[in-house]
Structure formats: C-alpha cells, structure tokens
Design goal:
Layout lengths: L40 H21 L4 H5 L10 H12 L1 H5 L16 H4 L5 H23 L13 H27 L5
C-alpha cells in the first residue's frame, strides 16, 4: 500500500505555534483574519468571508520556498499550494469577463485546460508571478464588486450575490485543500 510518502521525504511531525488550541493555525488573538468587527448586512458578510478566505490562502503559503509551494499532494493529483494560487488567480479573473473586458486566461489554454496546476513548478519566478497575478486579479474583483450597490444586479449569467457566494465557496473548498497540503509539506496544522 502506498503511504503517499515521497521516496526522499523525511517523516513530518505535526506542529502549530498556537499555545491555546493544538489544532489551530495560530492563537486566536494572533490571527489576522479575526478583526473583532461585527459585519453588517449582506454585503459586509459576503465581503468579509471573501477577505477571510483570501487571507487564509496567503497564511497557508507563508514561509514556504518555491520547491515547497510546488509540492504535489498525492499521485496522480497535480494539486499544490502554488497551483492553488494560480487557480484562484484564474477564478478571480472571472470578474473581468463579467465586466465585459477581453481577458484571456492567465495559465489555462485550450491545449492545457489544467495549465494553472500543470505549470506550478518549483521556480521562484513562477511563484512570484502567481502571487502578483492573484493579487492583481483580486483587486480588480474588489473594484468590480464595489461598483454595484445592489448585489441583486445581474452581471451576465447571475446576480452578483450568487457569483460572490460561488467565489467564497471555491475559496473555502481550496482552503481545506491548503490545510492538507501544508500539513504534508512541513507538518503545520490548522483549522
């Protein structure tokens, strides 16, 4: 039976810097996702959820080098933390298309529909590009969302609130993947 361990991989010990809860990424008072500001209304709740999950992706990748960012989960999957960043940059780019911009895919092509994952290689320049693209696309998304006072506004295929919920769901799904990927890389655990 394959344990999923790479041949040259040393045993990884689970750890966390949290001193209060052993299954938390950090202590609650040190968690930048927790603002202690009460969200107000639908818009505030949705935007806070999006902010929270974007920050979670960044936190799960913090302190890793290019090789670690590119480590794949388990065969035959091509999933890696670097691939997640690239994948989410592609997902954020959807807001450009909703705004009517001509915005071709960043990493995916007709020949390689999984280019966001397949091109996630252990190269510092590839990692830097992924973060730059993701941040730029997130900023465009935020500006697009800010242009609409009513989240019920249809932006093509669906009301903006549905698009936001779908984006939050995509981040939440991949934050779960990021938890497992990070634990596999260096043993750091976290909710």
């Amino acid at each position: 039976m394959d344990s999923g361990k790479r041949d040259n991989e040393a045993a990884v010990t689970r750890w966390t810097p949290s001193t209060i809860y052993p299954d938390m990424w950090v202590d609650p008072d040190d968690d930048p996702r927790e603002t202690k500001v009460e969200t107000v209304g639908e818009r505030g709740t949705l935007l806070e959820s999006l902010r929270h999950f974007r920050l979670t992706i960044e936190m799960k990748c913090a302190g890793l080098n290019a090789e670690q960012m590119a480590w794949r989960s388990v065969p035959p999957s091509t999933m890696s933390l670097l691939g997640l960043v690239r994948h989410m940059a592609e997902d954020e780019r959807h807001f450009r298309r909703m705004a009517g911009e001509d915005s071709p895919r960043i990493y995916r092509t007709p020949e390689d529909r999984d280019g966001d994952w397949n091109g996630a290689v252990a190269d510092p320049a590839v990692v830097e590009d992924a973060w730059r693209q993701w941040r730029a696309e997130s900023q465009v998304s935020d500006r697009f969302i800010a242009d609409f006072a009513d989240l019920g506004t249809r932006t093509g295929e669906a009301p903006l609130r549905e698009i936001l919920v779908a984006q939050i769901t995509e981040y939440a799904r991949h934050c779960g993947h990021a938890d497992l990927l990070r634990e596999r890389i260096d043993g750091r655990v976290g909710q």
